[in-house]
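Supplementary Text 2. Reproducibility record for the structural model of the 367-residue chain.

All settings were left at their defaults, and a single model was retained for analysis rather than an ensemble. We include the record here because the model underlies the residue-level annotations in Supplementary Table 4.
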Amino acid sequence: MTHRSLPVLISIALALGAWFPTRSLATEPPPTVSQALASVEKRIRSGEIPNVHGVIVVRQGVTLAEWYFDGADTRRDSGAIGVVKFDSATLHDVRSVTKSVVSLLFGIAMANGAIKNLDIPVLDFFPEYKNLQTTERRLITLRHLLSMSSGLRWDESSFPYTDPRNSETAMGVADDPMRYVLEQPLESLPGSQFRYSGGSVELIAQVLIRATKMNLEDFATQMLFEPLGITQLQWYKDARGVPYAASGLRLLPRDMAKIGQLMLAKGFQGGRQVVPETWVKAAVSPQAPFTNGGECGFNYGYFWWLLPTCAANPASGWYAAVGNGGHRIFVVPEQELVIVVTAGLYDDSQQTRVRQLIQGIRGALSN
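Retained model, structure tokens:
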């Protein structure tokens, strides 16, 4: 089978509903690649890369590896749940990977005409907060929220999410979470500084609810999950029944891979443009004033992370959905590659080892 024939076969398979990739679409990987992937799996099973729960590797629409491991886990709704035997049917908290899903929902809402443009002041959607409708705060637009550059004070890094001083945690217990976010002091001019903010995501989710006149989960199910064949999921909700947009989803690793494949296909799936191609491109292009970004550093799009790229070793714009604990959807267009990882490394500095794992897999596939 020629390399050129793969996209045609994949398109036919997707149209017939065979959305999750299988080895049947192509020949087995070369022995050197299989051996290199086996070496990576061995490192995980030995504990060298700790508490990884699942890994899926898809290249050119073909699943090259799908591994599951036993490991300790923590659920957002119930805390530590002990050691879990993970497999392909086990839902997993994905935490802030949820943010990247919300980005796709926003792009769909724009394509449907529910949201006219990115430069609408966010306070246009919250007319009830009359005392917040100041000239300064009305400079904050939807674009600023999506790129996490609103200028509002926010701190999710100084304290763990179990600490009430963490801004996201404080928002969660506030009587009016949306007001809590919007009334934070303005510390910089909107659009001038990146600051990671779950509050920005919750505001965008509320904008989606108000603009589409639909429950967020219903909108996601109808416009994104059903077209992708995602039928098993959970979405944690607050006391008001509103899904946590910043970190509330539980997904199957295979369904995380579907989201990665959708991004790789520029939003196209099953003969349908599920997410506008223009939005996919914008979401994974630099949008935030990232202080350590640039030629050899991280950047941020619209709720998607852009991975380091250096002129001496270009990575051709690979990007990721990233969740606390080690949850990742990595997309590497240059290699037509999607890598999914789930883990139990919540608030753990060893999450950095996940990136080493990804680099190991990329290295194995470059042979």
